[in-house]
Design a protein that fits this description.
Blueprint: H1 2-7, H2 15-24, H3 27-50, H4 53-71, E1 77-78, E2 80-84, H5 88-97, E3 104-105, H6 111-119, E4 124-132, E5 136-143, E6 148-152, E7 155-159, E8 165-169, E9 180-183, H7 190-199, E10 207-213, E11 217-222, E12 227-229, H8 235-249, E13 256-260, E14 268-271, H9 273-291
Parallel strand pairs: 2-5, 6-9, 9-10, 12-13
Antiparallel strand pairs: 1-3, 4-5, 6-7, 7-8, 10-11, 11-12, 13-14
């Protein structure tokens, strides 16, 4: 009897079973087991499936085909480009730097990069780009307006009012309506040059251009080989002074080659060689008459 009682099973749970039951009663563990394990198993399926290289390649090809079908739908296709605000020459340059092969998908167009490319042209001040309904790539351009002809080391170039390069020209005769500016550093001082040209309006018919000297001051060049040498500072006031003297005493109508205003306190005038000889002869005659 005692042997039978000793061999009977102990109804108390084992330590491992007790811990498992306690763990199962924990809400966090139960949620993790009931939801986490199925989720991990579910995520493992595509991982196992994509572990095969052939399957991955086929999937990539299928995705690329779906994307191609979407991007080439008619509503996403661009069929032409319209350029507004550009001259014929600039329009030609734009189409040269943007060699688009229409029709093209709008997904293949980087509008900002294209806009920056067009804005980088010398003759373009600003550019805006958008795709209009109907598959039209619209480009709106604001061109730089040439203000002067600059004679630089590389030849003749058109510059705008701020000194930005617009375009090269082959000969001065192509733009006789624009004033001529020359000399080292003249392109960096175009606003000042334009102010001098405006101040020279009373002698505009005789004006041939302005020359930057030593990248620090200006000479005003007139016809008949005359020059007005201006100081580094107060150039406009010095030029206006010379024009005022001309209006009163016909200074520039005389045989004068140079009017030097670099020292405003002591302006000097250089006469032509013939005029100097005539002046000397007159003085000799006057001296002879007084001695007689």
């Amino acid at each position: 009897m005692c042997a039978m009682m000793s061999s009977a099973r102990d109804p108390a749970p084992s330590r491992l079973s007790y811990r498992a039951q306690r763990l199962w009663l924990t809400p966090l563990f139960r949620r993790a087991l009931l939801r986490g394990v199925p989720l991990v198993a579910l995520m493992a399926v595509p991982v196992v499936w994509l572990s095969d290289a052939d399957r991955r390649e086929a999937l990539h090809a299928q995705i690329a085909e779906i994307r191609r079908q979407i991007e080439t739908r008619p509503e996403f296709m661009v069929t032409l480009m319209a350029v507004d605000g550009a001259s014929a020459e600039v329009d030609e340059d734009i189409r040269e730097v943007l060699p688009l092969d229409f029709p093209v998908s709008s997904f293949d167009l980087d509008l900002e990069e294209m806009r920056a490319t067009v804005a980088g042209l010398d003759a373009v001040k600003s550019a805006q780009m958008r795709i209009r309904p109907g598959g039209v790539l619209e480009l709106t351009v604001l061109e730089r307006v040439p203000a002067v002809v600059w004679r630089g080391v590389d030849g003749l170039e058109l510059l705008d009012g701020q000194g930005h390069r617009v375009a090269p020209i082959a000969a001065r005769a192509q733009r006789p309506d624009l004033p001529l500016v020359a000399g080292e550093g003249a392109d960096a001082a175009i606003p000042e040059a334009l102010s001098l040209i405006a101040a020279a309006a009373p002698i505009e018919r005789r004006l041939r251009g302005v020359v930057r000297i030593g990248a620090r001051r200006w000479d005003v060049v007139l016809d008949r080989g005359q020059r007005i040498l201006l100081p580094e500072t107060g150039a406009i006031a010095a030029l206006e002074r010379v024009i005022a003297l001309t209006q009163v005493s016909d200074l520039l109508a005389r045989d004068v080659t140079t009017v030097d205003m670099r020292n405003p306190v002591r302006p000097t005038v250089r006469l032509a060689p013939g005029a100097v000889e005539d002046l000397r002869r007159i003085r000799r005659l006057q001296a002879g008459a007084s001695n007689g």
